[in-house]
């Protein structure tokens, strides 16, 4: 068994999926990313344009490969008390636990390659594009990535290594899941009609619009809002998420006092420690400037003027 195969197999035994691309593909990845960021919709979007990646390989050793790994995550719901009524809302499937997941992934990889004298280094790459080209994921027509057994609920991380990439699985085209071509449920369900079999219009995607600091366009209806950050409609109806989506559960609660403080727009650093900790743990702190707006819209949709 080659060291690269050992890495992939050991990660799979721990519940992860991985692919290894030769370092020569780094130039292809950077060129594609430059094309993506040159698009008008990207340059006009405060949320998209803030993304920054670094394509420089490590200086400590000559990198020979890029390892990209997917770890499953659980759909998240957060509870809020408002006017004595409990509300449960979808949130991004992110949590502070992921730091421990990454530490475990690093240990699995280094345990496998260290005995062969190979090394590992952090990277900051556009992992979804990378995972798509390597075949780690398939793309939905809704622009979501899907992995068998995880659906669209996973997080990606990547590393540089001097481990040789034995099999180059790189595909020039992004693969669309065959089942998407025969389905169309997300097309019917999408409230903004940003999805079709031919094109995905990110400028109309509610997931992006909900992350922008500007007000929603007038054509966005209140009843369409469904998540604290982003949109889950296409993921909820997707058959590839059938075994995953129903596992969502309330994982944290915000008291009425905490809910009111968020709605009032109190500065993040002036919230009580418990509230700040929860927002940071579920990666909502970076979105705190828009969280009061989005939470208010969800409460209003629930029939609670906020």
UniProtKB/TrEMBL annotation:
It is an enzyme of class 1 (oxidoreductase). The keyword Oxidoreductase applies. Keywords: 4Fe-4S, Iron, Iron-sulfur, Metal-binding, Oxidoreductase. It holds the Pfam family Fer4_16. It comes from the Bacteria. One of its GO terms (molecular function) is 4 iron, 4 sulfur cluster binding. Residues 172-200 form the 4Fe-4S ferredoxin-type domain. One of its GO terms (biological process) is tRNA queuosine(34) biosynthetic process. Its EC number is 1.17.99.6. PANTHER family: EPOXYQUEUOSINE REDUCTASE. This is Epoxyqueuosine reductase. The gene is queG.
